Amino acid sequence: MNYKSVAVFCGSKFGNHPLYKTHAIELGRLIAFNKQTLVYGGGSVGLMGAVSDAVLESNGKVIGVIPDLLKNREIHHPHLNELIVVPDMHTRKKKMYELCDAAIILPGGFGTLDELFEMLTWNQLNIHDKKIILLNSGGFYDHLIAHLLQMQNEGFLYEAVESRITICSTPLEIYR
Q1: Is 36 helix (H, G, I), strand (E, B) or coil?
Q2: For an engineered disulfide with 12, which of 46, 53, 117, 128 has Cβ 3.0 to 4.6 Å away?
């Protein structure tokens, strides 16, 4: 994966399966190893914290983008190379899209899905053409993938799912 900067969208919690954190750490190390800049939500907790810590511990560069209303709630990361505070969630997403060349989506909650679907929609509308990768850690996104295929099979998508999103099972698979 030859990109200078990678946005990672993921949960501010760890989730119930230890594999999610393991994959976040592995991904962070790979981002640093490949000399890419991590662009992410700016938090120090959950999977966000794990991926950013792994990049920083591997001497990589990290840019956090956090809305003012979440700066304390998500406990912004104090050791980033750069922390950009924006007024709201929409501005956060837009700024992250501007700063990245590709996006990787790890397990997460509503916010992660919001970010995924906005990126997919903007990609479909040719607002951007950034690579979108879904990290399906331990089958976390199996039901979502099935639903995306259902949307495709029922004629609601303009292209095949795989033309807009790459699905990988491990962080290493992303870099093969």
Answers
A1: coil
A2: 46
| CATH code: domain of residue 130 | 3.40.50.450
Among residues 173, 130, 159, 142, which one has the least CA distance to residue 39?
130
Strand 37-40 and strand 61-67: pairing? Answer: parallel
Determine the length of the chain: 176
Helix 46-57 to helix 18-33 angle (10° resolution) is 30
| pLDDT tens-place string over residues 38-97 | 999 999 999 999 999 999 999 999 999 999 887 766 578 889 999 999 999 999 999 999
How many structural domains compose the chain? 1
Q: Is 139 left (phi over 0), alpha (psi -120 to 50) or beta?
A: left
Domain containing 41: what range?
5-174
